[in-house]
Amino acid sequence: MEYNKSCVTLRSMPFWCVGNPMSDPFGGAVLDRISSVEVARLIAWGAKEGYLEATGFHDDDLVPWDPDNPEDDLDPSSETSRTLREIKAILDAAGVSVNSAVCSLHGNKLFRNGGLCNPDPELRRLARLKVERTLRIGNFFNAKHYIYWVARDGFEVPLTVKWDEVYDWLADGLNHVWDYIHEQGFTNYVGATVEPKPNEPRGQMFLPTSGHAAGFILGKLRHPEFWGVNPELLQHESMALMNAVMTVGYLCSLNKLKFLHFGSQIKAQFDNDFPPLIGPEGLKETVQMFWALNQIGWKGVLEYDCHMLRAEADIGDQIGCRKVFIRNCAVATEIALALAGRIRQPEPQQSQSAVDLAATMQMCGLDGITGNRR
């Protein structure tokens, strides 16, 4: 299945977006947790309705992880293998491809002080085994990308960090991703990405922005050509007061924009993870981001990384509200791409303010406004 509208080739709706029970630090889950098989059925429904073409997952979204049995997926008779086969059959029947596989190194309490950057070598070893398991699961689903997102690889107290070692630990962990893929002969992965984030759940992260991630890839990894960045826009970059247009422009100039994670955000706040275009700000920035991608000539996957508003989690229709969320994300994408397509190349003699106002009028369909009261 293909989408191929404007700069977007596929729309990916991940398991973590659909299955989110809508808890937050100040209140428990609003919705019941549904099984990964039920989430797969909702994603398949979205594909059949024409709202998406692909999906992504954290390993823990699909099957639980037992640190005492880190290779359970290799046993075809295990509950893990049976569940993975059932999910794959549902996705395949709906024609849903898999864009990304992500190792969850943030949920389990063992990794509360980090995963690949944990100061305890035994926990770094365990994190590596979990990454290997995720890569195997991704291979089973023919995932195109492996994502490392910074998760809990960060700190609250900088004096406790081994600054002379921590980035080497991270490089070792990510270099091992490439090594393991090639040792196992996995041919599904076209690349891997780093997803930066400035803070939350930790006070600070070791790779807070796309610039940090790109610099780390180019300066520290043995196979930088395999690695890119998947910025979360508007959320993660906006948390650090970065602008999405600058982010995509910079990453494209380095040929490091592998794909986008997409949602909406209030600048400088916690990770809102609003659905695309939802919230009091960000419309203009989002539209101009897509305009810039069109101008550059970039084409790639748009993967949602957001959830419904907590107030919209309908206890009385827990499947229906999730379907509305999927549909709303698709509608928002269509709106953003359509508005970006309205903006024309500015005339060189115009002032910067005139260019910006003209683009806003074009976006809003108000070309006739002149400012003359007569």
UniProtKB/TrEMBL annotation:
Primary enzyme class: isomerase
Origin: domain of life: Bacteria
Entry similarity comment: Belongs to the xylose isomerase family.
Keyword field: Carbohydrate metabolism, Cytoplasm, Isomerase, Metal-binding, Xylose metabolism
Coiled coil feature spans: none
UniProt-recorded name of the protein: Xylose isomerase
Residues of the Xylose isomerase-like TIM barrel domain: 62-304
GO MF entries: metal ion binding; xylose isomerase activity
Pfam families from the UniProt entry: AP_endonuc_2
Subunit structure: Homotetramer.
Reactions catalysed according to its record: alpha-D-xylose = alpha-D-xylulofuranose
Predominant cellular place of this UniProt entry's protein: cytoplasm
GO biological process, alphabetically ordered: D-xylose metabolic process
InterPro entries: Xyl_isomerase-like_sf, Xyl_isomerase-like_TIM-brl, Xylose_isomerase
Subcellular location as annotated: Cytoplasm
EC number: 5.3.1.5
Cellular component, GO annotation: cytoplasm
